[in-house]
Design goal:
Elements lengths: L2 E2 L1 E4 L2 E4 L5 E5 L7 H13 L4 E5 L6 H13 L7 E5 L3 H7 L5 E4 L17 H25 L2 E7 L5 H7 L3 H17 L5 E6 L3 H18 L1 E2 L2 E3 L7 H17 L5 E2 L10 H11 L9 E3 L2 E5 L5 H19 L3 E5 L5 H14 L8 E4 L10 H11 L7 E5 L5 H4 L5 E5 L5 E5 L2 E2 L6 H16 L1
Parallel strand pairs: 1-10, 4-5, 4-12, 5-6, 6-7, 7-8, 8-9, 9-11, 11-12, 14-15, 16-17, 17-18
Antiparallel strand pairs: 2-3, 13-14, 18-19, 19-20
């Protein structure tokens, strides 16, 4: 019999048979207490049930305490706050004493990703895992003492060189990273754990999450899973991608918390996330109409967002379970041209057919030092005419080069409003203004497509 972990994060119950919880993340500078408190309030008012804030260094720890105190004073103290930590275990340990949850990335907690091939023997590999466990021990001891939860945030784009060298840059590698850390947690008798398996590729995210869920079932203990398609982008494309990946997994009965990551103001994320959960509650996927590899999906929803949420979720589910060649959508409330447009968007999101330029963009956070929202919109407009090409626009180097490793080109944020141009995972320019970087990017593309 499988045991399903269920616990409280703040006053929110997650895991087991608890309802799906919708969360979001700030993109202000966490050191700016006034701006961050104001943004947290907007996010909570829009429906966020948990709020995550970036903590890039020890410098942000005291402001984070001030943010927490101010939100409680202003009547927002019932919403759990999550600290997002990369690279620095000392920061994770510091915030674990007062935050409700700490998100750490196993790919950069002690390990690194330099895109290097490591030829490790079994004993060398085990020694590195043990070193990682010893470094993580103080964090888990602090979390147990203070009742703090931990999210193990596995990102496809930031798997460490040790994992990738042995298991490839694959969903299976993501699962291995998660299982290593679960074993470390259990070694120290720490069980207040949430896990996420994120990728900008919908199928990669779904495959990794489902594999991990199946692995936990075999192990006999299932921990709560957080779902999200990272770097989904914005507008309809970002929402369709999220609905296809998150919605399909929820239809499989997988997932406890979700975040729709949009390169937009973060208060836009939770309303769509809540609507996504609600729109698929009564969606029956047991008798999908699939003929010769084509999903024929009929739905008479009059609300456009509800309609494409249900449609994208059903398509993601059907493609994952059966493999699709095409989709045919039917809805009497929308024109043939609009239906055809959504067929294209949904098939691209699920990678059934790649008919347009594919764009990925992170939602940004306090580490981003340029106006990623306007730059991403400009990139989409300027480079829309390259079907099959994949272009990324990333906020910073934490996950940027890694998440863009399978992209053809991209822009990654540097400091002081500047960005760098990348070809694949290789940086090919010095930091420059975004307008200049787009010129360099266009010339690079033109030189290579001719």
């Amino acid at each position: 019999m499988n045991s399903k972990r269920q616990f409280q994060i703040g006053n929110v119950t997650i895991g087991g048979d608890a309802p799906v919880v919708v969360q979001s993340m700030t993109n202000t500078d966490t050191a700016n207490v006034t701006a961050t408190v104001a943004q947290c309030k907007r996010m909570i008012d829009s429906g966020a049930q948990m709020v995550r804030l970036t903590v890039p260094s020890l410098h942000e720890v005291e402001p984070l305490k001030a943010i927490q105190k101010q939100l409680k004073s202003d009547g927002y103290g019932n919403i759990p706050l999550i600290a997002d930590v990369h690279f620095n275990p000392k920061v994770a340990e510091a915030v674990a004493t007062f935050m409700d949850k700490v998100r750490v990335n196993p790919g950069n907690f002690t390990d690194k990703r330099n895109f290097s091939q490591l030829d490790l023997s079994d004993s060398e590999y085990a020694a590195q895992v043990e070193r990682m466990a010893l470094r993580a021990k103080p964090l888990f001891e602090i979390c147990k003492q203070h009742g703090t939860a931990v999210r193990l945030g596995i990102n496809h784009g930031s798997l460490c060189d040790r994992i990738v060298s042995r298991y490839g840059n694959t969903p299976e590698a993501m699962v291995q990273s998660a299982l290593e850390w679960l074993e470390i947690c259990e070694q120290y008798d720490f069980h207040k754990v949430v896990i996420s398996m994120k990728s900008s590729n919908v199928l990669t995210m779904m495959t990794a999450t489902k594999l991990l869920n199946d692995s936990m079932l075999k192990r006999g203990v299932s921990y709560p899973l957080h779902l999200g398609v990272t770097e989904a982008g914005n507008d309809r494309e970002g929402r369709v991608k999220s609905a296809a990946g998150i919605g399909a997994l929820l239809l499989m009965g997988v997932g406890d918390t979700i975040r729709v990551s949009l390169t937009e103001p973060p208060e836009n994320e939770s309303p769509f996330g809540r609507m996504l959960v609600q729109s698929i509650e009564n969606l029956n996927v047991d008798n999908l109409n699939i003929q010769d590899g084509t999903l024929i999906f009929e739905d008479d929803s009059e609300d456009e967002e509800r309609w494409y949420c249900r449609t994208a979720a059903a398509t993601g589910y059907a493609h994952f379970q059966h493999g699709l060649k095409n989709i045919q959508l039917c809805n009497p409330h929308f024109s043939a041209s609009k239906i055809a447009d959504y067929e294209s968007l949904i098939m691209q999101a699920c990678r059934i057919k790649i008919l347009n330029t594919e764009f990925v963009a992170c939602p940004s956070c306090g580490r981003t030092q340029y106006d990623i929202q306007s730059v991403f919109s400009a990139v989409k407009q300027r480079f829309a005419g390259y079907p099959g090409l994949k272009i990324g626009v990333m906020g910073c180097i934490v996950n940027g080069p890694g998440e863009m490793a399978d992209a053809d080109y991209g822009l990654v944020g540097a400091s002081n409003g500047l960005v760098c141009v990348y070809e694949g995972k290789k940086r090919v320019s010095e930091p420059m203004l975004p307008e200049k970087a787009m010129d360099v990017l266009e010339q690079l593309i033109m030189n290579n497509v001719q």
